[in-house]
Amino acid sequence: MRHNGRAPIKASTMRPENLNLRENEPRMAVCPDCQTWRRLTRSMIAPHRDGVDVPKSDARRYFGDKPAGGRRCPGSAQRIDIDITPEQWSEKLLTAETTTVSRRTTHPIRKPRPEAAPAPFQMPAATCPLREQLAEHLQSGCPRCRAGRCARAIELRQRIRRTAQIVAAPSTPIYGQLRTAIREHRASCTPCTNGARCDAGRQLAARIARDHLSRTA
Description:
By secondary structure, this protein is α+β, with helices and mostly antiparallel strands. It folds into two domains: 1-52 and 72-97, no CATH class; 141-216, no CATH class. Helices cover 41% and strands 7% of the residues. The protein has seven helices and six strands; from the N terminus they run E-E-E-E-E-E-H-H-H-H-H-H-H. The strands form two sheets. It has a four-stranded antiparallel β-sheet, with no helix packed on it. Strand 2 (19-20) and strand 3 (28-30) form a beta hairpin. The chain is elongated, with a radius of gyration of 37 Å. The relative contact order is 0.10.
């Protein structure tokens, strides 16, 4: 058996788990090309096939042709220079196994559960007009909503979230956020648009007044 022409691989540079130098056992190594265990013959990886299908030829096969089983692996007849003793290899293998075990955590890492969205009855009344608009839009059969790329639905959800955060905040919110929330509410609420404020509109207006007094006090 002739070598494949590549430079020899030193056993000391290989990963110890890819080599077997135990006494009273055949010496074996993992092929660098197909990553399979192969026996070492005269410090060379035994010839083998990598399992890759070879295009069939219409040429007539004669006696002595190699059987079909894939092409010859390029890692066949790769020279392995055994420059370490079995004891040194055992020490490297033990060190690698100890390092791997020490890296494993004994406590499983639990992923945080996503917070459940609040039920409609738990959401502030100020978001009711926006939620109604979103429900009507979703029921209209928008093709972009089915694909998850509808800008209108995304905008309504963002406005609902902002309004809910502002109304539910017990502390004094930012004045600009309140102004934005009441403008969006009046644009989507029919009574507020006609000049008659609803309960949600009066609640937002009261929050703006309290915020303004706290800022000027």
